[in-house]
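New to this. Please check this fold:
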Amino acid sequence: MEFNHADLFEGVADAIGERVALVCGDRRLTYAELDEHANRLAHHLQDAGVRPGRHVAIQLYNGVEYAAALLAALKIRAVPVNVNYRYVESELLYVYRDSDSVALLYDAEFEDRVAAVAPRAPELRHLIAVGGAPSIPGAVGYDEALRNADGTRGFPARSADDRYIIYTGGTTGMPKGVMWSTEQMLLAFWNPAYPPPAKPEDVVENARGGGPMVMMPVAPLMHGAAQMATWIAWFMGATLVYTRKFDAAQVWRTIEREKVNSLTITGDAMAIPMADELERGTYDTSSLLAYVSTGAIFTGTVRDRIQRLLPNTMILDRFGSTESGSTAAAVAGSTPEKGLRFAPDVEDVTVLDDALRPVEPGSGVIGQVARTGYIAQGYYNDPEKTARTFPVVDGRRWLLTGDIATVEEDGSIAVYGRGSQAINTGGEKVFPEEVEAVLKGHPAVYDAVVTGVPDERWGSRVAAVVQPSGDTPSSADLDAHCRRELSGYKVPRVYAFVDEVKRSPAGKADYRWAKQIAEEAQ
């Protein structure tokens, strides 16, 4: 057995095969049943010519098929590649080509887009439609693909160096494929509540001894956070629960029905509609022990609101990235409005200054959050970005996350925001996250994204794209609210009001869109 996700899942399935591994809607599969299901898909892909090291794209909503596709690709030493199901044709073509994918599993709902783009991706040779009969020549239906396939294993030996790719980004440019070895990824995203495994067999024993935990990642599986939550659940021997799409009422009904213990979301974009629904309806949330945000941070007002609604549930913020793994937890009481501080889980996380030297705790020197040790290998098909993001200093390889921060005297990391989004106005840096958090504290603001727009005098001025929660507030009212919480240079000079703030399915802000809207308003 290797530190390889397919090896480890098979070991867990052999140890606790009768335990329920996955629930989605009215479908329930035990570990043994899911393993057999994934074996059939793996053999089909193998028979279709997918070889070790080749890439299998997955353009699906959450469900059994997505989980099986991840497992099936890894079982034959192929590489799963996530595809954002909201992408339009030009974006899909970029990902199909950039990833060099040779096979694609897609939801039948997306067939028109797939049909228009797939012929222009020269490597893409095999298509599998899920949820309906395909009309694309040569494509096969998912049920047909599995019907006569072998449900046993019989796959070649795997390696801890087998590759796993997660495409991320797209809010400021085209997404990039973050490359991991399975061993490094497993350990980087290991549940910090458990000691890391010394050998692969420890993972199986951990799952065997796991209690009847029920865990639910709410984000779409095309987002790395949900995929990592999936593996964490399985390697704890837990039952994993999905909903096909994000719908707040359906999420709460599922929590009530399945007695979910741990819920993982991505920040305010999911927390706010879930809070709205919890206030409107009546749901039994007594099973819920932990409500965790990862991939995006709670603002203080939203976190406090969730805590009031779930007084007996732990509300947790996790800090990390697709490139770094899970690295830190929010310090109690810290928020984007008051100042965001994180306590690292591992010694390999620090802040490096402009000379790429560790920042002395309490010095006040500003740098960027960095990690060494268990980090990604780089970006697929982009050696230049890899070299910039993963520099080698004194023989040690680092990841520069781009998060601007300093180290406090107690060793905690104070994070100001993402450097690539910082607005330089008259020589002062403004981090959008802080201003967004303050705006969302106004009772008339449902959501907000802050960006910079050109200014002849100051270079840039701060602009806010605001989604009201009811009647549209006046710019003067928002200005007065912000000035009570922020220095004058951080207060938005431009407001654009929209019916809905555009975000990714995982809740990430679309800053390109926000900038365009703000410039039009200016």
Q: What stands out?
A: The first helix runs from residue 5 to 15.
